């Protein structure tokens, strides 16, 4: 009996629960249907329920709500929800507009920065162009007015300032002008030195032992000698440097000749010890080359170079034999 009663109670409880859930579900559906009805009316924010309900009374979704009070309450809920949606939309729109404004300001800053950098670059290029023009004007001025490599900046500057072209170089600082002047004078000196040495190269009587006293009588009237310097001491110093350079070059060329001469070998020192004729034979072979003849004026020094080379070959001994790989390569061909 008790089991039946318990089963019955359980059944009734489940039934009531299901009815309650069904009622709640129906109530939720009625509510949603009513909200759909309201959404179709395009209700404005200030719309009053008393005016609106007259348009809705014939709609089943209106009638589906069980009481007038509930309808008005649902209307208020709907309006509150719509107001919140509007507020959210407005907030989102404001945020979107704010992001757009930030982006536009950032873009404007980037554009302004790019324009500023471009303007600065143009200004730099314009300034550089003006400086290059000023340098060219100043170089042209010096080319016309500074012809001597002995010119001094302190004296020359006063003369240059008198020329109207001096103002064309006003962008240049004093130190820059002095630097350009020194470069100009150095270029003049280099050019005159090259011409003077060219004159010495063309003077056939000059040997490695020729003195300045001997050569100056021959070249003193040549314009290249006169333009080089008015100082005889300076001319002599340059001549002696020229001879020194020629001597160094001649010895280097002669050493190259000795290396090229196959007649001279590591046996040559022993052959000379046995007979001086071998040394004469070596010199006879060498005398066919101008690199030997150019040292004709210093025969003792030339012979020392020959003997030093022969003694060096003797110390090093015979050359190493061909590598083992060379015959192998030939046999495989």
TrEMBL record:
Residues 313-333 are annotated as: Disordered. Residues 108-135 form a coiled coil. Residues 26-81, 131-187, 188-245, 247-312 form the FF domain. One of its GO terms (cellular component) is nucleus. The keyword Iron does not apply. Gene3D superfamilies: FF domain. SMART domains: FF. Keywords: Coiled coil, Repeat. It comes from the Eukaryota. One of its GO terms (molecular function) is transcription coregulator activity. The keyword Repeat applies. It holds the Pfam family FF. This is Transcription elongation regulator 1 isoform X2.
